[in-house]
Amino acid sequence: MASQAMLQVFGQPASTDVARVMVCLLERQLDFELDPSGHQVTLTHGNVTLGDSRDICRYVCTEFPRWCTRDLYGAGALERASIEQWLQAEAQSFDAPSSALALFHLAVGGAPAPAPYVSGDEAAAVESERQLVRVLDVYDGALGRSAYLAGDDFTLADLSHLPNAHYLACSARGRALLASRANVARWYAAISSRPAWRQVVAVQARTAHYPVAFHPSASGHGAV
């Protein structure tokens, strides 16, 4: 069966797409191998090959039984529909402005950017910030009614936001933006402190260019 095959992730851990897949696998406590060769995220599992990070996360949550973790993708149709709503919001409304703003802030701040940045257009950054503020206003309202986006449990809805939110928080302006809404600030503090995400950040900091095997089920979210 496909579920018995080794999970392999290809791509640089600094990539937001690769980071999204890594934290999903670690949250699910699944063994996998990271091969940082390649520029775009790819997951192979037996004869299955996937190349979209959000689809990979959906696959991981539906392919493997929930024997050791809470369900990240909803326990029923209603919960899953709510999670999907927020996954779409992340992909369609949060991703582009947060990515553009993070790159701009890191570039003008002199810190290493997560990807090549070629335009220092302040006007474009202002527009991205305007778009992101509108998104965060919606999030803040939702987070005033529940601990996480899709309810009171951490799910893919929250997990999918981590990579871009992290890079946004790497600059003073980005941190101030996240902190400007109390519910968003509380939510980001909670999701960014999860052990699985902290391990992804540690791997990113090492900027490894060699394969790494992860055995969280055996060693408590560890890599060897």
Structure in words:
The protein is an alpha+beta fold and 224 residues long. The chain has two domains: 2-69 and 197-219, Glutaredoxin; 77-192, Up-down Bundle (Glutathione S-transferase Yfyf (Class Pi), Chain A, domain 2), CATH 1.20.1050.10. Helices cover 55% and strands 8% of the residues. The protein is built from ten helices and five strands. The protein has a five-stranded mixed β-sheet with strand order 4-3-1-2-5, covered by helices on one side. Helix 3 runs antiparallel to helix 4 (122-143), helix 3 (77-108) packs parallel to helix 6 (162-169) and helix 6 (162-169) crosses helix 7. The radius of gyration is 17 Å and the shape is globular. The two termini are 26 Å apart. Its EC number is 2.5.1.18. Residues 76-214 form the GST C-terminal domain. InterPro entries: Glutathione-S-Trfase_C-like (IPR010987), Glutathione-S-Trfase_C_sf (IPR036282), GST_C (IPR004046), Thioredoxin-like_sf (IPR036249). This is glutathione transferase. Belongs to the GST superfamily. Phi family.
